[in-house]
Automatic annotation (TrEMBL):
Species the sequence originates in: Protomyces lactucae-debilis
SUPFAM superfamilies (alphabetical): DNase I-like
Organism taxonomic ancestry: Eukaryota, Fungi, Dikarya, Ascomycota, Taphrinomycotina
Site positions per UniProt: Transition state stabilizer: N246
Residue intervals of the Endonuclease/exonuclease/phosphatase domain: 66-333
One Pfam family, short name: Exo_endo_phos
Name of the protein this chain belongs to: DNA-(apurinic or apyrimidinic site) endonuclease
Swiss-Prot/TrEMBL site (Interaction with DNA substrate) positions: H333
Co-factor(s): Mg(2+); Mn(2+)
GO MF annotations, alphabetized: DNA-(apurinic or apyrimidinic site) endonuclease activity; double-stranded DNA 3'-5' DNA exonuclease activity; metal ion binding; phosphoric diester hydrolase activity
Transmembrane segments annotated in the record for this chain: none
Amino acid sequence: MNKRKRTASISPPPMKTQKVLDSYTSPLRTNALFEAGQAKLNHVSNTSSSASAGASNTLKRTIKLISWNCDGLNKYLSPDNTTLDKFITRRGSPTRNTAKTSFLTQFLAQHSPDVLCLQEVHVSSSKRASLLRRLKSDAPNYEATCCLPASNKHAGVVTLCIKSLAVKHTMEVDWDHEGRVLIHELDGLTLFNVYCLNSSDHPWRDATGTIKGTRAERKRQFQRLLAQEMLLQSAEQPVVALGDFNISRFALDATPGTLRTQETHVKNRREFNALFGKFVDLIREAHPSARKYTWHSRTGTSEARVDLILASSDVQRTVCDTMESVGRGQSDHSPLFAAILIPSQQISGQLFDQC
């Protein structure tokens, strides 16, 4: 998949290169909430189609997006036996049995996302080739892309897109060197996979190792750059950003009495809500008064909603929720999901997916 860096300057994005992927039909969804949303979608789509019959060839299809801070991806993958298998094969012996199904393979089979956005994968860029090999083995029906830090920091994001989604272009940004942002352009929708910094008074270092203020200051700078990028992309087509934003927006988003109230956190929260006020918080929109937590302390004493799905107002959605009842392995974060409508194209009486 083609990748290029996006700069922080305000300018029209360059022309995109079409990427044609192998055809694959998504398996049947088993999630009850998704099925309920699909029924709702069918009703809306049928009504819309009847009202505009003959006016346009464009139809809609729905895709299921899941975001999850997995807190280290390696433990959920099958081992990379490439080197050992070559060694054994050279000596005339069969390769080892790797039939055991990985957690990731089981997760994909159970939830059937069209797009899975993973954050905090804990893999450095030096391990990129090995990571992509393992992802290809464990998720053969998906196209994997990753943005990884040069060092072995607790960062890195990975996106898995079902192969029936023709991703036109995937980009990184030149204002991040820690593996925190991937941008995927589909036909009719731009997706952001995001892992924002946590806030602290510890020093933050740039790509050269030079201290450039605190992590709290860098977090606010990162938020401004991300909001600018999302607004720029949303001028072209609808935008959805999924990931761990490392912020609880309101008191409702934390266990009572645990919302961080130190001045730094208050400032972060105030600025975040102002910057992203033009985008819809899909979980909060769907559940305006529910305590939908996505982070769970390992001591069991506190929880918070720090993982978000933010969308431009023109994104059509049917259902979205947290997945707190889903097995989350060894991560301290729960996944969350949304069902989004995107365009398909009607040609000569047949429906061809274009995204």
